[in-house]
Amino acid sequence: MTLAFWCVLVAIILPYLATAIAKFSGRDYGPHANQNPRAFLAGLEGRRQRAHHAQLNGFEVTPAFAAAVIIAHLAGGASQALMDALAVGFIITRVLYLACYLADWGPVRSLVWFLGMGLIVALFVVSA
């Protein structure tokens, strides 16, 4: 398996890090919260709410990244090293995105998001 494919796995797992921060960084998570987790998450505030929002964004962007990696491999127009570098770059942006979201750095978070989306587009462009 290529490094880019491993990055897809990492991208799939990363939103669950945000989930863990949202749920478990407070004292109010327990069996009652698991009875209706969506209501529990909707009631969060501050850093935990931002972690939940980062989780949602991670679930939204991961399919596009996975498709870009798979299509880049199938198209075969780019070197494996370049595809791996773009995929690793995307993972770095996702980690930075989560950090920016938790720190409440909205403008920086948006910039990091655009960089990540640019890397997804780049996977398509370099393989064309």
Helix content: over 70%
The largest sheet, given as strand count, sense and whether it forms a barrel, is:
none
The radius of gyration is 16 Å
Number of strands: 0
First and last CA, distance: 22 Å
Let me know the CATH homologous superfamily.
Membrane associated eicosanoid/glutathione metabolism-like domain
CATH topology: Four Helix Bundle (Hemerythrin (Met), subunit A)
Instruction: Give average pLDDT, whole number.
Output: 94
Which CATH class? Mainly Alpha
What would you say the CATH architecture is? Up-down Bundle
Low confidence ranges? none
How many domains in all?
1
Order of helices and strands: HHHHHH
Strand content: under 5%
Shape: elongated
Structural class: mainly alpha
Structure description:
Keywords: Membrane, Transmembrane, Transmembrane helix. Pfam families: MAPEG (PF01124). Its main location: membrane. It is found in: Membrane. The protein has 128 residues and is mainly α. It has a single domain (3-127), classed as Four Helix Bundle (Hemerythrin (Met), subunit A) (Up-down Bundle), CATH 1.20.120. It is built from six helices and no strands. The chain has helices at residues 3-24, 31-35, 37-42, 46-75, 80-103, 106-127. Helix 1 (3-24) runs antiparallel to helix 4 and helix 1 runs parallel beside helix 5. It is elongated, with a radius of gyration of 16 Å.
